[in-house]
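Archive maintenance. Older records in this collection stored only the sequence; we are now back-filling the structure field for every entry so that each record is complete. The fields below show one back-filled record exactly as it appears after the update. Entries are processed alphabetically, and Presqualene diphosphate synthase HpnD is next in the queue.

ARCHIVE ENTRY
Title: Presqualene diphosphate synthase HpnD
Organism field: Methylobacterium nonmethylotrophicum
Length field: 276
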Amino acid sequence: MEAPADAAPALPAAGSSFYTAMRLLPAAQRDAMYAVYAFCRAVDDVADDGGAREVRAAELDRWRADIDALYAGRPVPRTQPLVGPVRQFGLRREDFQAVIDGMAMDAEADIVAPDSATLDLYCDRVASAVGRLSVRIFGLSEEPGIKLAHHLGRALQLTNILRDIDEDAERGRLYLPAEPLAGIGLSHPTPETALAHPRLGEVCARLAEEAQAHYDAAWAIMDREPRRATKAPRIMGAAYHLILVGLRRRGWAAPRARVKPGKLALIGVLLRHAIV
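Back-filled structure field:
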């Protein structure tokens, strides 16, 4: 259902790395990021909790039409908060549509052991496309901004996948890629068989190395760019990297305790990156 015109936009949870990073932005950038976040949250909720698959597909199609209408100068109430950010920061229609397409990948069927190319496409749509919207709001120039969105988006999404493997399995999903799973003898894995496999750690460790490589590439880009324009992605990248480090330290054997950075570690991230 379409939100009422006067409904308050969804905001990130207070205390989250996203909330903290966005609170440090100037007002226009902060409001634009909250509008983008609200859009992403809305379509993600459709993909995860929007009812029967055909209902979810129809609602995502309505979101596609609403984004098209926004760019045609006919915004509906639920896209009205995006009017200003689109105009002020040059946000691109294809990036909003890519986010919807990524959510559709979850809505159409439960993703189980996608091949590496499909997993990369998924990461591009649900994470790097959001990054492409974000870097324009942050004020990065085009080429380094697109490269940063590519690498940091994938770093964050792969970290999410590794952190959430048990929760995703409860939904019938398994985002670990097919090729390394086949390498440990799982040619047609289910979430249950993959998580119970004694060599699961090899697959997770390989994906963690890939995530680390994306973090390294993202930091190399940010180190060459003005700190004011990279403050928010620095905070998010550093906070999420703490999760990856914690996951690798914890290991991959069951039972897998939830990894969450401590308050002191997050304060350290802010002290290093929030002051320009």
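Update note: The domain at 17-270 is CATH 1.10.600.10 (Farnesyl Diphosphate Synthase). Residues 156 and 240 are 6 Å apart (CA to CA).
Entry marked complete.
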